[in-house]
Request: fold
Amino acid sequence: MAWFNKHKQIHIDKKTHLLVLDQKWHELFNNKKPSKILTLEKKLNALLKEQGKLTTESKEYYNLKKKIMQEIVDNMSETNAENEKDAFHKMEKNRRNIEEINDKLKQYEKRLDQLPMKIEQVNRELVTVTMNIFYLEMLDVRAKSQKHDKMVKKLREEIKEEIIARDETKERSDALYSFIHDVVGSDVIEQYDDYYLKGNEK
Reply:
């Protein structure tokens, strides 16, 4: 493992994309995420889930408020002396519902205003922890790669020397055979083969 100063923290100002949505980020851990990464990932996913839930529910409350407002307008136009009492009760009920919806929407808006900063903060922390892990691993892998390069270079030199030696011995063997063949012929060579080769096999 490469040496590093654990007390030194590198501050990352650059805004980055959300790591939990990056498939490459997940794959680089090979299903072996450290506990610190898992904790931050869980925290960030929870914030994103909350943001999505609040956004969806806010739209639903806006639509419900719009529907109630339309009911109020419709009731006003349909109110007469005979249904005035019922219309009043309905108006009060709608008014209370709208107040509750407005309170709810204010809570949602406040939280939705806070979430982007919180999400960015946790994601930045996740980026910092990830950088500490990946960068140090990259240094180790790079050192191993350089070691492998040296070994490969050495093996190539050894193979090159073996090829040269093989070619030289083959050339010597061919030269000897050619000379013997020219002097005594193939029949005599076969006799030598029988004596030195086949004889040794018995």
Observations:
- Residues 84-184 form the longest helix (101 residues).
- The chain is about 85% helix and 0% strand.
- The mean pLDDT is 88.
